[in-house]
Design brief:
α1 packs across α3 and α4 packs across α5. The protein is about 30% helix and about 30% strand. The protein is an alpha/beta fold. The strands form 2 sheets. The protein has a 5-stranded mixed beta sheet, sandwiched between helices. It folds into 2 domains: about 120 residues, ATPase, nucleotide binding domain (Nucleotidyltransferase, domain 5), CATH 3.30.420; about 70 residues, no CATH class. β4, α3 and β5 form a beta-alpha-beta unit.
């Protein structure tokens, strides 16, 4: 059931897509217990379905309470990335709110670091995705361990995902692993931690092998 909202609640909205799905989430007043999610596999008419599903997900009243939007910019399915970014940009412009953007690999980086128990001596690693004909898409990530513990770690994207013909030897690599709900949670977390105000017109899809490259 959706979390009950009051007139004083501010919402952060997250919009995300993977290689074969998309999703929305919102959070009230930076309280993760209020998180509400919607995810769906792609259908043929993604453009129309995206708008219909979004309007069914969030009411007009809740839409007015949004103070920040957070969107993933890829790499993922290019068509889906383009459409969710258009949606996010349009909403941010129309309701005059800040728009945060993060790469899809940055969203999964903390989860991958924890899952693979990366130790203190290896504080950086790569996330990669093998392409059929053009090598790899890969991005590099740096881990910060607060006070030498493995709780509340933070991740910095030091190289944004881009095309590589070969992976660099002697580096630490993990394959990209999308997760609809977990990635939406990270979108909300990162956006709530970000105090800067970002303009909608600066947000563009990140996809190294898009049709226009």
């Amino acid at each position: 059931m959706p979390h009950k909202l009051t007139n004083y609640n501010n919402l952060t909205l997250a919009i995300h897509s993977t290689d074969n799905s998309f999703g929305f989430a919102y959070r009230e007043n930076n309280n993760d217990l209020s998180d509400n999610f919607f995810t769906k596999k792609f259908e043929k008419d993604l453009c129309n379905n995206l708008i219909v599903d979004f309007t069914n997900f969030i009411t007009k009243e809740n839409l007015k309470r949004i103070e920040k939007i957070s969107v993933s910019i890829g790499p993922a399915n290019f068509n889906a990335s383009r459409q969710i970014i258009v949606l996010a940009r349009t909403l941010a412009q129309q309701i005059s709110c800040s728009l945060d953007s993060f790469s899809s690999f940055e969203l999964m980086a903390k989860r991958i670091a924890v899952k693979n128990n990366i130790d203190f001596n290896r504080n950086s690693f790569w996330i990669f995705k093998k392409l059929k004909n053009r090598g790899y898409i890969a991005g590099k990530y740096e881990i910060n361990f607060p006070e030498k513990t493995k709780t509340n770690i933070t991740i910095k994207e030091t190289i944004i995902p881009r095309i590589f013909e070969e992976l660099i030897n002697k580096e630490l690599y993990y394959q990209a692993e999308y997760s609809d709900v977990e990635d939406l949670k990270e979108l909300l977390d990162l956006s709530n931690k970000n105090s800067s105000l970002n303009s909608w017109d600066k947000v563009l899809p990140l996809y190294p092998i898009s049709p226009i490259n």
